[in-house]
Amino acid sequence: MLASVLVARALDRDLQRQAGLTLAEHHLLAIINEAAAEGIRPTDLQLLSTLTKSGLTRAVDRLEALGLIASHVCPTDGRGQLLVLSAKGRQKLRRTAPDFFRSVARNFADHLTERETETLTNALGRVAAADHA
Amino acid sequence: MLASVLVARALDRDLQRQAGLTLAEHHLLAIINEAAAEGIRPTDLQLLSTLTKSGLTRAVDRLEALGLIASHVCPTDGRGQLLVLSAKGRQKLRRTAPDFFRSVARNFADHLTERETETLTNALGRVAAADHA
DNA sequence: CGGCTTTAGTTGCTGATACAATCAACTGGT
DNA sequence: ACCAGTTGATTGTATCAGCAACTAAAGCCG
Fold first, then answer.
1. What is the pTM of this model?
2. How far is B23 from B100, CA to CA, in rounded Å?
3. Distance from CA of A108 to the nearest CA of B (A)
4. Which one-letter DSSP state was computed for residue B81?
């Protein structure tokens, strides 16, 4: 827990300095970027993010206000939205990437061996996928 | 990050239900409990916790208001305090422990092999000890 | 001693999050 | 075609955390 908080704070600090984005916001952009071309539904986004439903709503609002993402009403479900990166959002992400990767390396990845990285990925992936009800 | 957030939320939820304590508050009690008998300084406590200075001040205030910890002026440094568990705090911690350990097992430890646990402890310990400036 | 710097801890303020309640749209059985 | 129940998402409210500025006690050094 301590490691995760310290790393998260360091990444957050660096991102805010270098890109004016929160770690959570940047993470959302990254997830949306890797989603299908037609966009991603907030519910699916939530499963991959560290936010709850309401937190996600607010974060999406902010990103939309910044013009980094766009939302359309889902054609097959009038309740839902489809979120996509705007051109500005894609650009932001691309420009931010180098600094961000350096930050991840410096604050986290460089401290681990390859074997450890693999073990962590597996083990924590399983933990994250578990049911925490 | 996702794993840590999900686990933290699950532990927090269980603790609040079962003991009326936040995960952060419970963590502070646990750290103080393992500290030297004469008490622990807020600064030292902060290094082991996930809180910042100001967050720690507030959390300590809450725990003191609940009567779970007591603070004395440090005899060798008039600026500082020495924090100790009260009898009530020790009791709280003892009574909370079984449920808490179960929660940790269910939400985290049970998903890992012994080798993985060992690797995580080492690797993340190193990450936490690193300088995140 | 006496002032300058550093360290310990607190406080005002702001922003972000979560929970719970709510609104809106879809779905399935009759 | 309708209504009950479910699911997707938003909003009201309260809390908590963090930053930055501040106070006060130590430490250092001439």
1. 0.89
2. 10
3. 6
4. E
| Interchain contact B104–A (C-beta under 8 A) | no
**Concatenated DSSP letters for chain A?**
-HHHHHHHHHHHHHHHHHHS--HHHHHHHHHHHHS-TT-B-HHHHHHHSS--HHHHHHHHHHHHHTTSEEEEE-TT-TT-EEEEE-HHHHHHHHHHHHHHHHHHHHHTGGGS-HHHHHHHHHHHHHHHHS---
Tell me what the pLDDT averaged over chain B comes to: 94
Residues of B in contact with A2 (CB under 8 A): 48-50, 128
Cα–Cα nearest to A26, from A53, A47, A49: A49
Terminal Cα distance for chain A, rounded: 19
* A132·B50 Cβ contact <8 A: no
Chain B nearest-CA distance from A106, in A, is: 8
Taking 90 as the threshold, does the pLDDT of residue B91 lie above it?
yes
| CA dist list (Å): A21 to A24, A33, A50, A68, A92 | 8, 16, 16, 11, 10
Confidence band of B122 (pLDDT split at 50, 70, 90): very high
The gap between B79 CA and D30 C1' (Å) is: 26
Q: Across the interface, do A112 and B128 touch by the CB < 8 Å criterion? A: no
Please state whether strand D lies within 7 Å of residue A77 at its CB atom: yes
Give the helix/strand (H/E) hosting B84. strand B81-85
Segment B21-59, tens digit of pLDDT = 999 999 999 999 999 889 999 999 999 999 999 999 999
